[in-house]
Amino acid sequence: MRRLGYQLPSPIPDPERRLYDLLCQADPDAAHSRYNALVRRLVSFERAAECMK
Question: In this predicted model, what pLDDT tens digit does every residue of 1-53 receive, in sequence order?
């Protein structure tokens, strides 16, 4: 995201694991699919932002 020019706060230690843990707390049965869906959305956003450069 920084490479695309977005200003971000200080990095969160182990962000992928932290996100997965939060999703597990909310709904353990759906955590894996929700995590994958969020990653796909992020990748899609990054690709679209790259095209806007």
Answer: 888 888 888 888 999 999 999 999 999 999 999 999 999 999 999 999 999 87
Q: How many domains does the chain have?
A: 1
4 lies in some domain: no
Residues 23-43: b if buried by 16+ CB within 10 A, e if exposed: beeeeeeebeebbeeeeeeee
Residue 9 lies in a domain: no
